[in-house]
Amino acid sequence: MSAPVGLKPFNIVVRGSVEKEFKSAAKEAFPKETFAYLLGHSFADRGIIEDLYFPQDVGQFCTTDTVYVQPRWLREAKQYARSIELAVIGEIHSHPYTYFSGAESIIRAGRILSESDFDRKPFGINGLCVVVERKSGQLVSSCRYYPPIRPVKLKLEKD
Q1: Which of 120, 124, 128, 125 shows the shortest CA–CA distance to 68?
Q2: What domains sit in the chain, N to C, each tagged with a CATH number?
């Protein structure tokens, strides 16, 4: 799909080992969600994801359908990122699905940001990793990344 006229695409480059690490953590956390900050470099037209920062106590603040992001996590992530000469450029979390008939269709279709993801006012690049349990108990995962979300100011005018 091409971008509308005048709107250039935002390119996201993800190091394969980074995605593999998050998928592994998401499967380990299953059936709960998990969360990490994306570390790398961000430019006007692209983001380069080179590493992850998982808060040490992330598991204590994750349920089967919510991550309760703690304000101190971002401070800790920024401190860690500076120590390795990177920046916090976004975040990624998982959406776990236990087995149900038709669950396999969620692997791709479920990789969308939820309304609560938008309500939390995420910044930078947003990653979402779906983890689906197959009938056999095997866990399969798929990630998708979204460009920074632009704030929208809506004004409804009376007719």
Answers
A1: 120
A2: 11-146 (3.40.140.10)
